[in-house]
Amino acid sequence: MKKNCLKCGKEINVKPSQFERKKYCSRICKTEYQKSNPPQIWCEISKKILIPCSYCKQQILRKPSNINKTNFCNINCKKLYQIQNGHLFNQHLRKDVEVKCLTCHQMFIVPKNREHTAKFCSKECLGKANGIRGKEQYRNRIIVSCSNCHKKFEKTPSTIRKLNFCTVACMSTYYVEKEMFAGANSGTWTGGKVSYYGPNWYSQRRKVRARDEYTCQDCGITEAEYGQELSVHHIIPFKQFNGDWKKANQLSNLISLCEFPCHRKRHSRMVDDIV
């Protein structure tokens, strides 16, 4: 079907289903026509009705088909209204029951689905119950003996193990001396020889640095001044012990030195591997 544009009068082809609705040949013509004929636009707007926002009471324009029991001027008003009146929604579906508070023994109302899980009427009662329970659990502590230094200390029943230690230092010392996680006892053991300086090297290294007060025994510089850990040197070269790492790593055969220049000076005078 053919029809003339309202603005420019140009003949346009129109589908039968759009004959009454289509009036312009382009958006440009539509815009220009509506600018020059504002009463037509106002007529469309005038179909809307002024109603108050359900939250802020501000007047808003709405089509009759879009008016509901509650109407809002923006999403924020809707959210605030729901927060303010949330306790009033779906009240016809709510079934309340009375439950006795375990702390103050007062009856309070909860929804039916919380009948067996609600225990306290307020946060204050919950806090009091937690305080009483904490004191009871503390009184249930058991005295145990440290597996390393045999010092007596308290532990809760749930944390008692076959091996119990009073400090992390005691635990580390015990594990190193018993070689519980070294060599074939290690969870990452894949076979082969132990590390070059033996499984007790790192523990002996820590002990030597502590014995020497973290100070180079040749030049006297401290680790704090040096800016890094000191090296630990074998006075008698490690290879002269033919793999006997227990003798090679005795504290009397180890000394703390700064890497440069003291440690390197010692190695320049002897044949050995750099620690």
Automatic annotation (TrEMBL):
SMART domains: HNHc (SM00507), TRASH (SM00746). InterPro entries: HNH, HNH_nuc, Multihaem_cyt_sf, TRASH_dom. Residues 5-37, 53-85, 101-133, 146-178 form the TRASH domain. Residues 203-264 form the HNH nuclease domain. GO terms for molecular function: endonuclease activity; hydrolase activity; nucleic acid binding; zinc ion binding. It holds the Pfam family HNH. This is Putative HNH nuclease YajD. The lineage of its organism: Bacteria, Bacillati, Bacillota, Bacilli, Bacillales.
